[in-house]
Automatic annotation (TrEMBL):
Classification via InterPro entries: ATP_synth_b/b'su_bac/chlpt (IPR002146), ATP_synthase_B_chain (IPR050059)
Pfam families noted in UniProt: ATP-synt_B
Name assigned to this protein: ATP synthase subunit b
Membrane-spanning intervals of the chain: 6-28
Family affiliation: Belongs to the ATPase B chain family.
Stretch forming the signal peptide: none
Positions in coiled-coil regions: 49-80
Keyword annotations of the record: ATP synthesis, Cell membrane, CF(0), Coiled coil, Hydrogen ion transport, Ion transport, Membrane, Transmembrane, Transmembrane helix, Transport
GO MF, any single term: proton-transporting ATP synthase activity, rotational mechanism
Subcellular location: Cell membrane; Endomembrane system
HAMAP family from the UniProt entry: ATP_synth_b_bprime (MF_01398)
């Protein structure tokens, strides 16, 4: 039958435990340490990513606020420039209108003077026209 050899069984048991010890120290513990370190690194990276996401949302909010402020300032500057340009244009129009009023008044005065001189000249030549007209009518 089957004969049990206690010496051989003891030798196999010693080899088994020594192999388990060597595998534990050379393979399992470094592998478990590597996996724990990797888990810790992943957790740390996730934490940093969340912090950066929070920071980026804060920075985006600040950037939006700055853009809104810049747009408001641009609108104020644009309104100021438009108002100044309108005031300048109105003053130029007003000065040109005054200039035209003065020149039209001078032109009207000149026309009135010419009209008076023309009336005086015509009334001075009226007796001559009457004589010419009577002579022409009498010759008909």
């Amino acid at each position: 039958m089957l004969d049990l050899n206690p010496g051989l069984m003891l030798f196999v048991l010693i080899v088994f435990f020594s192999l388990m010890y060597l595998l534990n120290t050379m393979l399992y513990q470094p592998l478990l340490k590597f996996m724990d370190d990797r888990d810790a690194t992943i957790a740390n990276d996730l934490k940093n990513a969340e912090e950066m996401a929070d920071n980026s949302s804060d920075l985006n909010a600040k950037a939006d606020a700055l853009l809104a402020e810049a747009k408001a300032e641009a609108n104020v500057i644009r309104e100021k420039a438009t108002t100044e340009a309108k005031a300048l244009a109105e003053s130029k129009i007003e000065s040109k209108a005054k200039e035209l009023d003065i020149s039209s008044t001078a032109f009207e005065a000149e026309l009135e003077a010419e009209q008076k001189t023309l009336k005086n000249a015509l009334s001075a030549q009226l007796p001559a026209f009457k004589e010419t007209l009577q002579s022409k009518l009498s010759s008909l």
